[in-house]
Design goal:
By secondary structure, the protein is of the alpha/beta class. It has helices at residues 3-16, 45-51, 54-60, 89-108, 123-133, 163-167, 203-211, 219-225, 227-239, 273-286, 305-322, 343-353, and strands at 25-31, 64-70, 112-117, 138-142, 193-198, 216-218, 246-251, 289-295. It has a single domain, classed as Arginase, Chain A. The longest helix has 20 residues, at 89-108. Bound molecules: manganese (II) ion. Belongs to the arginase family.
Length: 354
C-alpha cells in the first residue's frame, strides 16, 4: 500500500473516531413542537430554557455555541386520528423528519448537538438524524416513563409515549405504518438503549422491557443500588466493549415534580437534583456524549412564575452538567496563584501612584 493511501486510511479512521470530535462545539436546535401530546404549552419550552440562560451557561463553560435558532415546523392540515386513537400522526412524522435533517446537518458538521423541546416524540427525529453519521450510537433514556408503547398498545394515543417503538429493530413487526412515518428506519437494537428513572410503566411497556431484555433502572433500582452503581452498569452495558457515541434523551419529568413542576406528565418519587447531576456528570466524563435532547418543559403548566423558573433552570443545569460543568469546580485557564508583592515592589508601586 502506498504511503498516501495508508495516510488517507488513517485520516479516515481518525475522522470516524468520536473522540476526535471538537469537544467544545455545541449546536443548539430549538424544537418548539407539542403535537406528540395533548396539552398546550410544551412548544414554549425552548423559549423558557433560553430565557433561563442556556446560551450563556454553555459559553461560560468554554463551549463554542452554534445557535441554529428554533425550527419552524411545516403545519399539516387534516391530520386525522390513526386507528381512531393515535393523535397527529402526520404532524409528528413530518416535524421529526425536519428535525432529523437539522440534527444530521449539525452532527455531520462536527458539532455535538443539543435539541431543546418540545415533547418527547422529538426523539424519533433527533436519534434518526444523529444515527445517520453515528451508526453505532447508543442511547441513555432518562425519564419517568419508558415511552415504548406501540400505536397498538398506547392507552393515551399520544405519540410522545411511543417514540422508542419506532426506533427499535426488534419491534418492527409489531409497529403498524403510520401516515407520515414512512421515512423512519429503525436504527437501535435492544442492547443499545438503557433507561434510568422509570416509575410509571404501562403493562405493554413492561412486557416489552422484559421480553426484549432492555436494561432499565427504575427509581426502585436507584434506591437499591445507588446512582453510582446504576451509572457503572449503564456504561458496562453500552460502552465497555466498544467506545461509541452516546445519545442522551433527557425528559425533565425524570426529576421529582417538586423540582420540575412545569411538565405534562409529572410522577411523584423522581430523581433528586443530585442524582440528576451525577448522571449527567458521569456521561460527560466518558467523553462520548454526541447528542442530547432536553424535553417536556411546559411553562403553561406551572402554577407560578417561580415554578417556570425552577423547571427551566433545572433543564439548563442538566444541559450544563452534560457539557462539562462540575460541582467540584474546575481550574481551566487558571495555572498560578498571585504572589504578594515584595516590600520593595509595593514601595515602587506607591511611588508610581504618587
Ligand atoms: Mn418521555
Amino acid at each position: 500500500m502506498s504511503l498516501r493511501s495508508r495516510l488517507s486510511r488513517l485520516l479516515q479512521k481518525q475522522g470516524h473516531s468520536v473522540l476526535k470530535k471538537s469537544v467544545h462545539s455545541v449546536a443548539v436546535i430549538g424544537a418548539p413542537f407539542s403535537k406528540g401530546q395533548k396539552r398546550r404549552g410544551v412548544e414554549h419550552g425552548p423559549a423558557a430554557i433560553r430565557e433561563a440562560g442556556l446560551l450563556k451557561r454553555l459559553s461560560n463553560l468554554g463551549c463554542r455555541v452554534n445557535d441554529m435558532g428554533d425550527l419552524s415546523f411545516t403545519p399539516v392540515t387534516n391530520d386525522e386520528l390513526y386507528n381512531n386513537l393515535v393523535v397527529n400522526p402526520r404532524s409528528v412524522g413530518l416535524a421529526n423528519q425536519e428535525l432529523a435533517e437539522a440534527v444530521s446537518r449539525a452532527v455531520s458538521s462536527g458539532h455535538r448537538c443539543l435539541t431543546v423541546g418540545g415533547d418527547h416524540s422529538l426523539a424519533i427525529g433527533s436519534i434518526s438524524g444523529h444515527v445517520r453519521h453515528c451508526p453505532d450510537l447508543c442511547v441513555i433514556w432518562v425519564d419517568a416513563h419508558a415511552d415504548i408503547n406501540t400505536p397498538l398498545t398506547t392507552l393515551s394515543g399520544s405519540l410522545h409515549g411511543q417514540p422508542v417503538s419506532f426506533l427499535l429493530r426488534e419491534l418492527q413487526d409489531k409497529v403498524p405504518s403510520l401516515p407520515g412515518f414512512s421515512w423512519i428506519k429503525p436504527c437501535l437494537s435492544s442492547p443499545d438503549i438503557v433507561y434510568i428513572g422509570l416509575r410509571d410503566v404501562d403493562p405493554a411497556e413492561h412486557f416489552i422491557l422484559k421480553n426484549y431484555d432492555i436494561l432499565n433502572f427504575s427509581m426502585r433500582d436507584i434506591d437499591r443500588l445507588g446512582i453510582q452503581k446504576v451509572m457503572e452498569q449503564t456504561f458496562e452495558q453500552l460502552i465497555s466493549k466498544k467506545q461509541r457515541p452516546i445519545h442522551l434523551s433527557f425528559d425533565i419529568d425524570a426529576f421529582d415534580p417538586s423540582l420540575a413542576p412545569a411538565t405534562g406528565t409529572p410522577v411523584v418519587g423522581g430523581l433528586t437534583y443530585r442524582e440528576g447531576m451525577y448522571i449527567t456528570e458521569e456521561i460527560h466524563n466518558t467523553g462520548l456524549l454526541s447528542a442530547l435532547d432536553l424535553v417536556e418543559v411546559n411553562p403553561l403548566l406551572a402554577t407560578s412564575e417561580e415554578e417556570v423558573k425552577a423547571t427551566a433552570g433545572l433543564a439548563v443545569d442538566v444541559i450544563a452538567s452534560s457539557f462539562g460543568q462540575k460541582r467540584e469546580g474546575q481550574h481551566d485557564g487558571y495555572d498560578h496563584l498571585p504572589t504578594p508583592s515584595s516590600p520593595d515592589e509595593s514601595d515602587s508601586e506607591e511611588c508610581v501612584r504618587i
